[in-house]
Amino acid sequence: MRYGKLAPWLFITPTVLGLVFFRIGPIIAAFLASFTSWNVFSPPQWIGASNYVELFNSGTFWMILRNTLVFSLIYVLGVMVCGLFLAILVNNRIRAITFFRGLYYLPVITSTVAIGVVWSWILSPRFGVLPNVLADLGVHNLPSFLGDSRYALLTLVVVYIWKMSGYHMILFLAGLQNIPEEYYEAAKIDGATRWQSLRHITLPLLSSTTFFIGIIALIQSLQSFDITMAMTEGGPNYASATLSFFTYINAFVHFRMGYASAMSFVLLVIVGIITFINFYARKYWVETVD
Amino acid sequence: MKRNLVIALLATLLVASLSAFAMAEQVTLRYFMWDPEFQQMEAELIRGFEAENPNIKVEMTALDPTNFWPRLAAMAAAGELPDVFSMSTGYIDTWARDGLLLNIQHLVDRDLDLDNYFYNVFAEDRFPNKETSDMYAIPYAWVGSVLFYNQDMFDAAGLEYPNDDWTWDDFQKAALALTIQSNPNRAPEQYGFWWYGRYSHVEPWVYANGGRILNENKTRIAIDDKAKEALQFLADLTNVHGVSMAHRDMAGMRQQDLFPLQQAAMWVDGSWMVDHVRTVAGDSFRWGIANVPKGPSLEPGEERSYYWPDSVGIAATTKHEDEAWAFIQYLIGANRPVETYMPGKVPIYRDIAYSEEWLQKDQQPGNMELILALGDTPVRTTFNMGWSEWRGYASTGGAGMNGELDAVTNGQQTVEEAIEKITRDGNAVLERYYPEP
Q: In CA terms, which of A169, A245, B239, B392 is 20 to 30 Å from A21?
């Protein structure tokens, strides 16, 4: 059966249309909206670059941008380290290993609202399990992990890492199981320790997986929203808010669509720069089994 | 035969044209409300209205507030607003300014006997001037601020219950006596009072002292000396006297649970919390409500109460103004069953509010008429365009004025510093909504 020259175009048309109407179209619309004052229910008014000017003159925006970068850095490193650690733990042929793999994966599929509520109960200074147990052990005057602006963001990152480490464990596990056993056997014969095997075999041969996980984790970190909403609502006073949360607040609580669109484009530029650096640096550290 | 045929044809034509006329008169109103919890009862109310008005059918959609506003905003953008919908005091000015709400003043003047309603409450639905301008929505219920107090704790401390003669000094002494801390290394087991930066915790004290947070036109933050005095009084309760918990220490808890879980002996909040206290506390302790004590700087004639309505409005785009108004009159009038009002939310229709069913003397607090009296005093509020943004409300409750005052309770800044930030940041928001002429 022969296809005409038109056939490939026909096959990709649905995808192209989907992209145009549901991705590229909204992106262009949001870009245009970022130059307007628009509260959704009234026609937008063209205000030039005022939203961007307001954004870069806003102390709150810079604080939230810093929060976002701190959050992303800790989150990406955190899920990588924890994910790899868990993956190495469960990359064994011992009894009940499937149970442990499932156990570590459980937080990933648990409702974020439930996670937010339970962690809030654990950490609550007055009724929380942790402060009360520690107080009984003689440890008093613990900080308020969620209510103190110095700790709220860090506490949230820990909860996000706890929730998502199981997901990255699965990805690392797939990478680990792709490394030929012969390398380890040869290293063992040469007298390599477990640490040397990890350092010189596992980590280099996991680099492509690590690169992939880095990208995924970065995207996840920049989309952080649900646990923040459930646990701190970005507070106190935006101390635990990140850009995605702040964009939502401005778009759907304050109905400042133009301002929120400007914010989302700043986020887009940041993601673009980090991704570019990541891809550029890839050739210097990513190795493959081949 | 021929004559019979003509008569039959004429009769058929008559019936058909009458049916067509009846069909043409049938009106369907779309009604959006924000309280799914009361959807069932609201549906019964609608059935009663439809029975009395067979030519009007009402299609109701109930959404919780988180979904209600984005959905309504999207409908407004598309020019598809429902004919009748719930309207919040926090949004009414913006919606009226943008021409989305029907000016209903002529209908109110024409059809309502104002003596039947808590008329003072109507003020919040006027735009742009809250005293003299026209109405763009109408309340079906309202709430006021009251002081909740735990009678068992007062009895245990040997204190008299709060009364209208209480000064702030009396209040402070009681709060100190009601704070119990047996282990100095741990937080008090019982606080005398509970407050943080929330609007319904702070504004009642400011107004009880004759203070203002906004200027006369409600277009700029202008915290006056009496308001500063009230804020300092509250801050000292936490930071100097230790009778109220710092905001950071209530993380992980709902603020409205502290009083019913007997963590605090007194608490000022909206009267709708009566329902919450009843639900959470049950009969575990005896409690009552009182007026917020008057401040030391309050002068005669300055008395203002802090109350605000839940309202319904008509879309400016409706094609069925008369039917929508008829429906609204039914919603706010004598027909509405008292069960459709959450305990503590006051029906706007006086007879229902003063009915035994609403006062519920057999249930705590037993003196609900105290709330009703608020509705007959002059009102002051901070609601204006941009209110949720500069005040810090709902999902942004940790920000704005709310967040700055929370930082005061956390000991992170002084009242003066907080006022400086509230004024600077709040006015930056308000300048967008009320630009300098």
A: A245
Q: pLDDT by residue (tens digit) across A27-86?
A: 999 999 999 999 888 889 999 999 999 999 999 999 999 999 999 999 999 999 999 999
Task: Report pLDDT for B171.
Answer: 98
Q: What is the pLDDT of residue A5?
A: 84
Point out the residues of chain B with pLDDT beneath 50.
18, 21-22
Q: Residue B401: its pLDDT value, please? A: 96
- DSSP class of B221: B
> Any idea what the CATH number is for the domain that residue A200 is in?
1.10.3720.10
End-to-end CA distance of chain B: 82
Do B257 and B295 share a domain, yes or no? yes
Q: Cα-atom radius of gyration of chain B, to the nearest Å?
A: 25
CATH number of domain containing B250: 3.40.190.10
Q: Which residue of B has its CA nearest to A248?
A: B395
Task: Give the number of domains in chain B.
Answer: 2
Phi then psi dihedrals of residue A289, to 5 deg:
-60, -35
Which residues form the domain of B107?
25-142+307-374
Quick one: DSSP state of residue B167? -
Residues of chain A numbered 251-270 and touching chain B (CB < 8 Å): 252-255
Q: Who's near A208: CB < 8 A, 6+ residues apart?
A: A175, A286, A287, A288
Report the complex ipTM.
0.84
* Contact at CB, A237 and B399, closer than 8 angstroms: yes
Count of structural domains within chain A: 1
Taking residue B282's Cβ as centre, other Cβ atoms within 10 Å add up to: 10
Domain shared by B252 and B311, yes or no? no
B160 DSSP assignment? P
Q: In degrees rounded to 5, what are phi and psi of residue B382?
A: -105, 5
Alpha carbon dihedral B35, B41, B45, B47, in 10-degree steps, equals 110
Which residue do the tokens 């930082």 mark? B407
In a domain, B411, yes or no: yes
